[in-house]
Design goal:
- The longest helix is centred in the N-terminal third of the chain and has 10 residues, at about 15-20.
- The protein has 3 helices and 10 strands; from the N terminus they run E-H-E-H-E-E-E-H-E-E-E-E-E.
- The strands form 2 sheets. The protein has a 5-stranded mixed β-sheet with strand order 3-2-1-9-10, covered by helices on one side. The protein has a 5-stranded mixed β-sheet with strand order 4-5-6-8-7, covered by helices on one side.
- The chain is of the alpha/beta class.
- The radius of gyration is 14 Å and the shape is globular.
Length: about 160
């Protein structure tokens, strides 16, 4: 199963649509915040896909939760924007929260810097930003869950 992971769209609907179009096999889309309206629109545009989302620090009027926990293909995901876990100061609070929730995969945004890592059984990914990451590139993430295991990748928007 392929999962598309996006964050920090900040109103850039065109880039979000491009990311979805570039990953047609993705059955699940996880939006990690700072784009609650765009993510809500995805649910209407792609009813065949599961769309999960959390609130970011720029989603002022949103009543979405700050984090989500979801099991997909037998793997437990902990996903959050990251601001409530001080993501810009490091990943320790995020990792602790993911471990407390017995996650296999930690997904977070907020920093606009793409990261993929693996630490003691925990896959970690920040997909960067679809409105431009720290390097100016527009990026998104892909998580593939197969019989062989889990693969996380950060992709540049084409």
């Amino acid at each position: 199963m392929r999962i598309l992971v996006v964050s920090d769209t900040h109103g850039d609907v065109y880039s979000l649509q491009q990311a979805v179009a570039q990953q047609p096999k993705a059955e699940v889309i996880i939006h990690l915040g700072d784009g609650a309206g765009e993510a809500a629109d995805l649910k209407l545009q792609y009813p065949e896909k599961a769309v999960l989302q959390v609130r970011g620090n720029w989603d002022w009027k949103s009543d979405l939760p700050v984090f989500g926990v979801q099991t997909i293909e037998g793997k437990r995901f902990f996903f959050t924007h990251g601001h409530a876990y001080r993501a810009k100061s490091g990943m320790s609070d995020l990792i602790m929260a993911a471990r407390e929730n017995h996650a296999d995969i930690l997904l977070f945004g907020h920093t606009h810097r793409a990261v993929t890592d693996y630490e003691d059984g925990l896959y970690i990914m920040n997909p960067g930003s679809l409105c431009g990451s720290g390097s100016g590139k527009k990026t998104y993430g892909v998580v593939d869950i197969t019989e062989a295991g889990i693969v996380t990748n950060v992709m540049n928007l084409r």
